[in-house]
Design goal:
Layout: H1 2-33, H2 62-65, E1 77-78, H3 79-82, E2 90-91, H4 94-111, H5 114-130, E3 132-136, E4 139-143, E5 145-146, E6 160-161, H6 163-180, H7 183-191, E7 206-208, E8 214-216, H8 228-245, H9 250-264, E9 269-270, E10 273-274, H10 293-310, H11 313-323, H12 329-352
Antiparallel strand pairs: 1-2, 3-4, 5-6, 7-8, 9-10
Helix pairs in contact: 1-10, 1-12, 4-5, 4-6, 5-6, 6-7, 6-8, 8-9, 8-10, 10-11
Amino acid sequence: MFFLCSIIFIALIVWVFRSLPRAREWIDNCDGATSGPFPLWAPPVHMSPLGVLPPKMDGIEWRSLSREVDAEGIHVVDYDAIGQRGVSGKRRNPANIAVFGIKCAKRYVEKQDVNDLLLAMRQFQYFVETARPANIAGRPGVVWYADFEVGYQYNVRAPWRSAYFQVFAMNALLWAYAITDDNRYRDLAHRGLLALSHTIDEEGLCHRTRNGGLFFEEVVSSPPHHILNGHLHALVNLHDFRAFTGFEDPTPIIEQGVRATIDMLPYYDRYNYSLYSLAPNPGFKNHFNIANPYYHRAHVALLRRLQQLSGEGMFAKYADRWENHCGSAFDTLWAVLLIMFKDTMAVVKTLRR
């Protein structure tokens, strides 16, 4: 028994030390991903149409253009490969589809490769095809859904909706409008705005905070989880939406989003480190809600961006406080533990097949 325990202990030590370089690489990648003006997904305000597409995109061998898409040309995430809990297989995630399409559009601007333009427009067309009409507080709007299970921790079933999906779908449609100069894309994006101005019980995507703010829910669930990066992403993207379109409709929504952020930020602070969410049942399975190094850095970067956009000093205060823990020993140890956890999940998924 002692011999077996010694072998396990030594194997664990080796595993930890082998994970250290991966943890440092991951943290370096986090720093790169969240540095600079993060994130700016909307197209430039003064942008001429990019190019002319073929009248039809039928018959294209999409997989020959990119390994990141399925046979229909839509971006997919391999959740088995990344070891995410509660999700399996290759799935279409609306936010990832939007980001992939925008990246392809940006690459086309730089390199003028028509394949990038085709891939971009195929992703943007997906949001036209999947926009679901919704009766939101008695008014007609549209909402985008995910068609896969998100995991036991959120207590939701497929299909499920998300403010995070909503803003990325809207910005993807703005890119489609910028490329084609077709007002139908902009109008559809504008219809998506309604869900971000109403609460969940009105078929919207928000939770009302104590001072009348609107917290944008990344996962619409009961009880709510209040995922911080999803809310902050939605708020930044709404600023981008207003800047690109010139519409004033988002202004009261943005103001209420800022108010909600001020109301809620203190609840995410734990010993000068940020929480990922305010999940009602924190525990080992959800890392006690502690943000991993990527999301912690994202919180800092998003708050700095929002401080620039809104002038709200509280955002800079929390960004400064949380940034002090970026690159600390705790950061490295936390990354090692998460990598080991993901390795374990990948092994478990493999054994279950």
